[in-house]
Amino acid sequence: MTLTHEHYGWTLERYILEQQLQHPGATGELTKLFQQLALAGKIIGSRVNKAGLADVLGVTGETNVQGEQVQKLDEFANRMLIQCLETGGQVCLMGSEEVDDPIPIPTRYPKGRYVLMFDPLDGSSNIDVNISIGTIFSVHRRISEGSEPGMADCLQPGRSQVAAGYIIYGSSTMFVYTTGAGVHGFTLDPTVGEFFLSHPDIKIPERGKLYSINEGNRAQWSDGICRWVDWLKTPDKATGRPYSSRYIGTLVADFHRTLLKGGIFSYPADKKNANGKLRLLYECAPMAMLAEQAGGAASTGNQPVLDVMPTELHQRVPLFIGSKGDVADALERIK
Ligand code: AFP
C-alpha cells in the first residue's frame, strides 16, 4: 500500500478500526487494548524526552530478575504499562521483563480474553546517553478458559501470537505493529498527541547491506559465527560484500533499522551464554512475528523463533533476524 494524501489524518486508532471492520466477528477488544498500549507509549515517550531534565536518570539501586540494575525509567515504564492495561477488561494476565512472575489483574477489575507480555523499556543502558530505546509487546489469546489465568497462558509459542509490536523512542516516536495482516508503522505528532500512519505495509528487502552483532563478544563465539561474520566482511562484488556494520545495543532500534533497510541482526549463543542474551517472550518472539509478517525471517539457528515452545517466563534464545536471504546465509554458514 502506498501512502497518499487520502491517508492524511489516519490515526492508529482509525487504522485499527478499519482493519476490524474487515473481520465481522471482531469484538473491538483488541482495538481497545491497542488504544491503551498507545496511551502508555505516549506517556513513556513524553517522559523519555524529558530524561535529561527530570529526576529520572540513573539507577534505583535495585536489581531485576535478570540480575541487571533497574533504571528509574524502566520502573516508570513498567508501572505505566500495568496501570494503562490492567483496568480496561481486555487483558487477563501480563508478563513483564522487569517482573519475576506473571502479573495478575487486581480482582476489582474485569479480566479479558488476552495475555500481554512486554519489555517496558528495552535498551535501558542507552537511556543515560540519549540513544533510542523502546517498548516491545506481544499479545496472545487466553487459553485458561474456565480456570484462573496462569503460567500456561504466558508460555505460548510465538506462532500463536495474535499481535506484536514495539514503540520506539528515537528521533521521533513510532508505533509499529502487526496483527497478522502485514506490518504498519505510525509516527507520533507530538503537537497533536496522536500516532499517524507513516509506514503502511512495511516489507523487509530480500537482502540488505548491513549486519548488526556485538563484535566485542567475538572471543566467546563459536567457529561458525566467526566464519560467518568474516565472510560478511570479505569483499565480493557479486554478493554485495563487504556488508557495513551497525550496532546500537537496543534491540528495538537495531531491529527497526533492519526492518526498514534490510540486512541482519544477531545475538547468537556464545561460550558464556548458551542461549544468547535476548528473552524469547518479550523480545525475540514479537520481533520474529514482525519480521515474518514483513517478508523476512527469524531463527534461533536451529528452528524458526516462532516455533520455539517456551518452558520458562524469562527464557533466552539465540536470534538471527532480518532479510530472508541474509538469515538463510547465516544459517548456512554457522553450521
Ligand atoms: P538493556 O535493556 O539491559 O540495555 O539490554 C538491551 C538488550 O536486551 C537488547 O535490547 C540489545 O539488543 C542487547 O541487550 C544488547 O546487549 P549487549 O550490550 O550485550 O550487546
Topology:
Blueprint: H1 12-21, H2 29-49, E1 59-63, E2 69-71, H3 72-86, E3 91-96, E4 103-104, E5 114-122, E6 133-141, H4 151-154, E7 161-169, E8 173-178, E9 183-189, E10 194-199, E11 210-212, H5 223-233, E12 244-245, H6 251-261, E13 264-267, H7 280-293, E14 297-299, E15 319-322, H8 324-333
Parallel strand pairs: 3-5, 11-12, 11-13
Antiparallel strand pairs: 1-2, 3-4, 5-6, 6-7, 7-8, 8-9, 9-10, 13-15, 14-15
Keywords:
single chain; 335 residues; alpha+beta; 8-stranded mixed beta sheet; 8 helices; 15 strands; globular; binds 1,6-di-O-phosphono-alpha-D-fructofuranose
Describe this structure in words.
Helices cover 29% and strands 23% of the residues. It is of the alpha+beta class. A hairpin with a 5-residue loop joins strand 1 and strand 2. Helix 1 (12-21) runs antiparallel to helix 2 and helix 2 (29-49) runs antiparallel to helix 3 (72-86). The protein is globular and about 60 Å long. It starts with 11 loop residues before the first helix and ends with a helix. The mean pLDDT is 93. The protein binds 1,6-di-O-phosphono-alpha-D-fructofuranose.
In short:
The mean pLDDT is 93. Helices cover 29% and strands 23% of the residues. The protein has 335 residues and is an alpha+beta fold.
Report the β-strand fraction as a percent range.
15-25%
Q: What is the overall shape?
A: globular
Distance between the amino and carboxyl termini: 38 Å
* Spatial strand sequence of the major β-sheet: 4-3-5-6-7-8-9-10
Helix content: 25-40%
Q: Count the strands?
A: 15
Q: Which small molecules are bound?
A: 1,6-di-O-phosphono-alpha-D-fructofuranose
Order of helices and strands: HHEEHEEEEHEEEEEHEHEHEEH
Tally of separate helices: 8
The computed structural class is alpha+beta
User: Which parts are unreliable, with pLDDT below 50 for 5 consecutive residues or more?
Assistant: none
Give the biggest beta sheet.
8 strands, mixed
